[in-house]
Amino acid sequence: MNPWIRILIYLIAAPVVGCLLAGWDRRISARMQSRRGPPILQPLYDVQKLWQKQNIAVQRSQNLYIVFFLLLVIFTGALFFGGSDLLLVIFALTLAAIFFVLGAYKASSPYSFIGAERELIQMMAYEPMVLLAAIGMYMVTKSFAVDDIAVHPKLLVLVLPGIFLGFLYTLEIKFRKSPFDLSSSHHVHQELVRGITTEFSGRTLAMIEIAHWYETVFLLGWVYLFFASMPVLGVAASLLVFVFIILVDNVFARLKWQTAIKSAWVVAAVLGFGNILVLSMLH
Amino acid sequence: MTLVLTLILLPLAAGLGLLCLRSSLPRRILVTGVTLAVCCGSVALALLPTPVDLSGLSLNYHWINLGMLLVEIAMGLYIIYVGVRARHPLIVGLALAQAGLMVWFELTAGLHLEVAQNLFVDKLSVIMALINGVVGGGICLYSLGYMREYHETAHRDVADRRPLFFSLLFIFMGAMFGLIFANNLVWLFLFWEITTLCSFLLIGYTQTDEARRNALLALVMNLAGGLAFAVAIVWLYRQTGSIELQTLIKSNKVLMLMPAALLCFAGITKSAQLPFSSWLLGAMVAPTPVSALLHSSTMVKAGVYLVLRMAPVVAHTNVGMMVAMVGGVTFVIGSLAAITTSEAKRVLAWSTIANLGLIVLCGGIGTYEAVWAGILLIIFHAVAKCLLFLCVGVVEHKLHSRNIEDMSGLVLRMPRVAMMMEIGMAGMFLAPFGMLISKWAVLKAVVDASPLLSVFVVFGSAATLFFWVKWMGKLVQVVGPSERIKKELVLGEAIALYGLSAATFLTCLLFPLISSIFIKPYILDVYGNFADLGQGNVIIMMIMMAMVLLFPLSLIGQGKGPKVVDAYLGGANVKGGERFRTIAGTVQDVSIGNYYLQNFFNEAQLSRWGVIGCTMLLAAMFFLTAFV
Fold first, then answer.
1. CB-side neighbour CA atoms (13 Å) of B527
2. pLDDT tens digits for range B14-64
3. Is B568 part of the contact surface with chain A (CB cutoff 8 Å)?
4. pTM of the prediction?
5. Do B562 and A277 touch (CB under 8 A)?
6. Could you give the angle at the alpha carbon of B14 between the alpha carbons of B192 and B390, nearest 5°?
7. For residue A167, what are the domain limits?
8. What is the ipTM of this complex?
9. Position B110 pLDDT exceeds 80
10. Cβ–Cβ below 8 Å for A56 and B547
11. Cα angle for residues B222, B223, B225 (degrees, 5° grid)
12. In this structure, how many other beta carbons lie within 10 angstroms of the beta carbon of residue B317?
């Protein structure tokens, strides 16, 4: 398929799918907590309502950072589904996340500041494993391009089991789900003060939500890559991973940042690097 | 041809002239004039076809070599004098060993030494010359304004020795040109030692106890490198009967391993890699232009230049592997250590050490991809790091602090400098700016050559992200009202800062061009092979660049902004967003401070492990070369 058409489909379909996934997330979480939970389209209603609220901010320019955050998250996904270089995708994602963090810094409130600082720690925690995942895929397929990786005949997860598990671990951090919801306390764990999003409201908060939808689809797309040679299995695995993350979210309490970074780096070093070590010994 | 000689000799002569110039106005004129001439000269050199034809310039006169020997002896004597006065036996010992070896070599071998080409200019030299001329020139202009403020307002207690300062600045620059263009290793060695001596004098400029101590530290470490260099020359001569750099690169690899290992060792000391990085951290005591000079255009770049020159020799050998690992370990440790400190200059110093580690890693791997990435790193790092140092210098004079915590709200207090600082930092680590382009290239090169080394790059760059973003965030964060500082920059500073900011953007925008005009011919010449990032990827980078550039523009045209309210403080706000009433009814001030994770990553411990690890790697390097 033409990459531009794929990008177009992504741009239109990703928020829809992301919104539905977010709805399921809340519904499944509710069931795990023996509640009924909101309708599936609740995230959409939330965003609609947020969009109509008054525009307020602590610092005049803080909301602009979020606009760029959203733009860059969408851009990252477009690069990924357009079949571009995986490393470039990671760098674009990092750039997007940095706009988010800087926005929270700009807000200059203690709570959003602590959220920003913790988000940075989380980024530092997951970055090595994400890069190692790209490197592992390169070692098997001899290409960093998502297009080439997707059409590789072998089932990547079979040669990259360590990297897949490590990647799962970092997904927990990347989704900001418990036990790693350090930077923001998210939906199902209702708390009075949020972290990084404390000072964002109305339309800006809606944008963060939409960015989250896009991001979810992109990250599950990456999970799919591990199973790309068998598309049906790939979609099933991505959805399963999503449910698994929800399960973990509900089972675990929040960990300290020290544990987050230590464990993520150990996972990256043992599972990720170990996998690469084995691969390079086999060659 | 004469251009090459002029580039070396003009700054040297100007340096000697400046030493005698006591009054301020002629000094300003001379500095500006020479700087402009050197800038234009290096740009003109870049326009010449390479390798520059130097055949009409044999320079094989006996008196030149004799003169150089005399300069060398004089420097040796001075260093010994310094060592004796400071009661530092190691300095005396190293200087004696070095001088003894060189004098003995000159007297026994020097007489019938045939050198076909004393100077050699290829594309790599041209790139280095451009960095030295343009970035170094910028630093000289900046110093004019900076040093006046330094002595007249900021540091009245320091003795005003500006003639010496500017003189050293130019001698440093001239020596750096010599170092880049030299093909005769004895010449290269002389210029190498001049940079060592100049950095010693510049670090000790303020003559405080700390400055003297750190200057001696720098001297001793660089002398150790110098000794390795001298041994390399003698070894090379014994093996091949030649003392030319080009012979070393082009002859049988196996025979050349020991001299190459020794030269890499010298490069590692000069570029402050891990067992030796303490000298660069200590060098912060000097006035800011000195730091900028040491960190960006000269000194440390001389070290990595030499390592990159050795790259084709050490590629795929144990020596290369060990050098690469020293670089990798330094990259990780330097990046982690930079997290733990709030002193701006120290963060910059650790980041320099880390990034040079990445270049050394490239040099050690030594494949064409790696060397391409290494050269890109040199270019981008020089520009962005220089910009950052000069910004910190200005901020330090205005705020009387170089603590990052005190830079909170700098966007309102010094908007122009803050903006340029943000540009510099973005240039250091953020997509789609220069350093990231090169880090990307490094990652690809490493994965292709030996994937296991990629572990250094991935962990190191994660840490890099943390310390830069929290600094960037600190600048934009505004707590409470802040007053704008009047007259942020004087003329010389403004020229240097605006120029470097523009250069940070331009090097990124023009990087495909820079790569194809300067780096590609060099790589093709040495390896006969070339790879880059692919045109599609470069276009994507340009799109990202356009998006990032839109950001400051969008700040200007905001139109109807949001309604501004106070921040949430967890209590009732008391007039404005900086105080709140707690449950107990007391009024509490708000203060926000960055994380430095000092209990998690301990700077002293990190560097101790780094020193132990890298010393073992270097020992292994020599052991493997000598006995295996």
1. 22
2. 888 888 877 888 888 888 999 999 999 998 888 887 666 666 666 667 788
3. yes
4. 0.94
5. no
6. 70
7. 3-282
8. 0.94
9. no
10. no
11. 65
12. 20
Q: Which residue does chain A place closest to B544, by CA atoms? A: A92
pLDDT at residue B58 in the model: 64
Interatomic CA distance for residues A27 and A188, integer angstroms: 10
Contact B536 A84 (CB under 8 A): yes
Give me the residue from B452, B547, B564 closest to A57, CB to CB: B564
pLDDT in tens, B437-466: 888 889 999 998 888 999 999 999 999 999
* Contact criterion met (CB < 8 Å) for A84 and B537: yes
Nearest CA distance, B437 vs chain A (angstrom): 9
DSSP state of B370: H
For chain B, the domains span: 1-313, 315-556+604-628
Tell whether A11 is within 8 A of chain B (Cβ): no
- Could you say which of B458, B472, B567 has the minimum Cβ distance to residue A132? B458
Tens of pLDDT, residue by residue, chain A (283 residues): 788 999 999 999 999 999 999 999 999 999 998 999 899 999 999 999 999 998 888 888 888 899 999 999 999 999 999 989 999 999 999 999 999 999 999 888 888 888 899 999 999 999 999 999 999 999 999 999 999 999 999 899 999 999 999 999 999 888 888 888 888 776 555 566 778 888 888 899 999 999 999 999 999 999 999 999 999 999 999 999 999 999 998 888 888 889 999 999 999 999 999 999 999 888 7
Residue B523 corresponds to which tokens in the numbers above?
A: 């790589």
User: Is A271 within 8 Å of chain B by CB?
Assistant: no
Which of A260, A283, A29 shows the shortest CA–CA distance to A127? A260
The domain total for chain A is 1
Q: Which residue of B has its CA nearest to A280?
A: B451
Q: Which two tokens stand for residue A105?
A: 């810094």
Q: Please report the pLDDT score of residue B176 as a whole number.
A: 93
Q: In this complex, is the C-beta atom of B476 within 8 Å of any C-beta atom belonging to chain A?
A: yes
CB-CB neighbors (< 8 A) of B561 in chain A: 57, 60
Chain position carrying tokens 């090459």? B4
